[in-house]
Amino acid sequence: MKNYENEMKLEFVSKASNESFARVTVAAFAAQLDPTVEELADIKTAVSEAVTNCIIHGYENKLGIVKIVAKLKGRTVEIEITDSGKGIENVELAKEPLYTTKPNLERSGMGFTIMESFMDTFEVESIIGLGTKIKMSKTVEGQVEEEEQDFTMVTR
Amino acid sequence: MDLKKNNEVGSFVENLSNIDKTSIFLLLEMTGKDSIMRKTKEEESMETVFEEKEKTLILKIREEIDDYKVQEIRRKADYEIQRYMPKKVVFDFDKVTFMDSAGIGLIIRKVQVHKFNRSRGRIGQFNKEYKKNF
Questions:
Q1: What are the φ and ψ backbone dihedral angles of B124, each rounded to 5 degrees?
Q2: Which of A49, A89, A129, B51 could make an S-S bridge to B56, C-beta 3.0–4.6 Å?
Q3: What average pLDDT score do residues B91-101 get?
Q4: Domain ranges of chain B
């Protein structure tokens, strides 16, 4: 069992208005690793995609609970996002870019592609009728520290 | 006035000095949200500019684009396009503070609509943090 240096859990109702709150909360937690702006944007976007999938596809806009667990170990943030919705029939098909089961909602079908691209690791576990769990992680390189410079004071 | 002698204010000042990076980040994120700070017309979620000469409609989006917000943005864009019936539509994402695949869906849909209407669409500048999404 890994020893995590920090961990947080978040649960909220599957309302679209909570998408922003969820990604900001996870990003705030990951900010402890002092990531770059781009790294933080990647994490926020991936979380937003996963949460949106729970709401739109998992619960199909009915009310349910979305759970997020985020853990920090070293320079890595691990995120699990879970719903207890309908599950995914064909995970490999769902992962294909531009594929969507909701074309009537003008979905782009790029959610999984973005999560896979923006995070270092990405896994989907799903059981029909029970729900879906997204597990992803990102190792943050963080801000590059400027080298210390030697200053020599010259007095005359 | 010595703030620390005032118990209530002093306590606040003392706690303020203990705010860590996480709290500052969260505070900035929440107070920086357009929906909270926007008061003037210039700060509306979408600014519309219509250039009569070339019949060009420029839609400057000034907020986050996610699944929740995209529906409102789509409605506003559709309204403005029907109102002006432009030959060309430009989406300006420079002031967009966040965008996920909902924004991509918005663009794909608008391109399809414009092809059908035989008008031209163009994607203008966009915030470099979310340039990767394109």
A1: -80, -155
A2: B51
A3: 90
A4: 3-31, 41-133
CATH class of B41-133: alpha beta
Residue A129's alpha-carbon distances to A89, A94, A124, in angstroms, are: 10, 16, 15
Q: Distances in Å between the alpha carbon of A31 and those of A7, A36, B31, B58?
A: 13, 9, 17, 35
Please list every residue in chain A whose beta carbon sits closer than 8 Å to the beta carbon of residue B33. 20
Q: Could you give all domains of chain A from N- to C-terminal order, each with its CATH number?
A: 6-139 (3.30.565.10)
The stretch B58-86 carries a mean pLDDT of: 91
Quote ipTM for the complex. 0.78
- Is residue A25 within 8 angstroms of chain B, CB to CB? yes
CB contact under 8 A, B100 and A49: yes
Choosing among A17, A26, A45, which should be mutated to test the B contact, i.e. which has the most B CBs within 10 A? A45
pTM (2 decimals)? 0.75
How does pLDDT run across A83-114, given as a tens digit for each residue? Answer: 999 999 999 988 888 887 777 767 778 899 99
Are residues A70 and A26 in contact, defined by beta-carbon separation less than 8 angstroms? yes
